[in-house]
Amino acid sequence: MKKTTNMISLFTKIALMFTILLLVSCYTEPSLQRYFVDSSENKVFQNISLSPQSFIKNAESLSEENRAQLENITKLNVLMLKNDSKNDVYETELNKLNKILKQEQYKPLLNAGEPSKSMEVLYVGEGKQIKEIIFFGNDKSTGFVVARVLGNDLSPENIYKIMLLGNQLDMSELSKIIGDFTQG
């Protein structure tokens, strides 16, 4: 009888440990990627996914070295939400996004602005192995824009080289998309 009680007790402990392990493994903090996916299904957001080739019109006129730098970028995801003062969607979504971007995995590179208008640049990765760069701009009078730049070999040196290309790039298509958002 004692042997049966011990086996039941052991089985109960194993079942309890398994249940706790299952519950803990199912809980994950919300990620920016998940936020993008969830928001893309919401009609109040504008969501755009682009390859650099689709919005940089003059890539062929760049030097081979500069084109190689751009090819490190594989995708650009942009999510925009207008601030419609008639409802609380903007504040709710801004709070969700700020909570996500405060997680340890999102490391700040640059912060600028004031409470009503701000801009942040963050990254995900370690050392020279940057997985993604995040640009987040917020203007309480218009709304917010968050962009994820994904790629290969996004080392600080390569990011800097890409930034130096800024004046040489024809990004009028991307500017038009963002301009359409802020204007209407």
UniProtKB/TrEMBL annotation:
It comes from the Bacteria. Pfam families: DUF4252. The keyword Coiled coil applies. InterPro entries: DUF4252. Keywords: Coiled coil. Residues 56-107 form a coiled coil. The keyword Coiled coil applies. This is DUF4252 domain-containing protein. It comes from Psychroflexus salis.
